[in-house]
Amino acid sequence: MKLFDVLSIEIFGASHAEEIGVNIFGVPKGTKIDKAFVQSFVDRRKSVKEAFSTARREDDHVMFESGINGDTSDGGVIRAVIKNTNVRRGDYSNIKHIPRPSHADYPAKVKYGLNYDLSGGGMFSGRMTAPLCIAGAIAKAELERKGIYVHAYVSEIGGVRLGSYREREVGKEDAENAVYNPLFALEKENADKAYSLIEKLKSEGDSVGGAIECLVFGLPVGLGGALFCGMEGKISASVFAVPAVKAVEFGAGVSFSSLRGSEANDEYYFDGDKVKTYTNNCGGIAGGMTTGMPLKLRVSVKPTPSIAKEQRSVDLVKKENVTLKICGRHDSCIVPRAVAPVEAAVALAIYDEALKEINDINEN
Ligand SMILES: Cc1cc2nc3c(=O)[nH]c(=O)nc-3n(C[C@H](O)[C@H](O)[C@H](O)COP(=O)(O)O)c2cc1C
């Protein structure tokens, strides 16, 4: 499936397959590939805190198989794989024909057949975001070389607010620093409250959702275009590739519905010879094009569907209603682990647009 204009990203494998990986087409010859940076970015999405994250531990060692000559791309397909080492298929054998509510199981079994292997979530698993992060890291690093910085952080967990661009100005350093705390929260003040909530829900066999915000600094004016060429659509389509993402908003987002034009409009001023806006309710995009102000988006992540609490489902073979208790290893809160994947998805969309529109993106 082709989402981008210049790049083509094929993610392959499955949660409990021998390996997962990515084929990346369209990275121009001569692009610097910093393997250590790619590895460190992939490591950011690993289980973040044992108290609430999955007990499945994987090394996630990234192996590049083609497309790189020394430390630059050779213009061919960049192929990278990660071996799955910690696979426990038995975890799912007792629920093989019983779809987990709000996971991909039911539509996948109807579409691909009852024997389709969904252990560990199959190709719908959050684990598939590791290869996404490989591609995203290459995009992010290349954008940074051009002075464009993509940073995401956790803004809310289950109603506990952890900082938001809607409440205060969030600068590049603020957003960057969110990496250095285990929840990837913008502000740490309420982090203990969020931990307690996650732990409480875990002990009750439940899970919780949250929100991630992503900011992009240093964008030129005018990337994107009208209608189907708009940046909101392009970025959202990429971000919705991250499992469990159910909403993407730009700037003031859904709250625009209750604002007046006089409150919502971002008025202009000159800062030296640069045109800026006093507010940034439109989130750095107007008419589908970047305005030169920081791009801001908020992503809602649903609670982990696999919960230990008893739920109602159906046995697709016996054709009867049943109750279900899910064993296996699941995060009670996946939000912090989705931060790097969101950053990766946003970086890829912008890198693709930049490759299309900025001729010198890869000048050497
Ligand atoms: C990093 C990450 C880890 C995830 N881990 C789990 C998990 O352990 N258990 C689970 O049920 N869902 C997990 N998910 C969510 C499911 O993959 C997702 O809800 C499911 O594929 C259905 O897709 P949808 O929520 O986009 O509709 C994870 C998602 C991400 C991004």
What value does the average pLDDT take? 92
Widest sheet: strand ordering: 8-7-9-15-10
> Proportion of β residues?
15-25%
Number of domains: 1
Question: Helical content, roughly?
Answer: 10-25%
For the record, give the distance between the C-alpha atoms at the N and C termini, rounded to a whole number: 31 Å
Please give the largest β-sheet: 5 strands, antiparallel
The ligands found in this model are:
flavin mononucleotide
Structural class: alpha+beta
Structure report:
- It is a single chain.
- This protein is of the alpha+beta class and 364 residues long.
- The protein has helices spanning 35-44, 105-112, 129-145, 172-177, 191-203, 231-239, 261-264, 339-357; strands at 8-13, 19-25, 62-66, 68-69, 72-73, 78-83, 149-157, 160-161, 210-217, 245-250, 268-271, 274-277, 285-286, 289-290, 295-301, 311-315, 320-324.
- It has one domain: Chorismate synthase, AroC fold.
- Helix 1 (35-44) crosses helix 3 (129-145) and helix 6 runs antiparallel to helix 8.
- The longest helix has 19 residues, at 339-357.
- The model has no long low-confidence stretch (mean pLDDT 92).
- Bound molecules: flavin mononucleotide.
- Flavin mononucleotide binds next to loops.
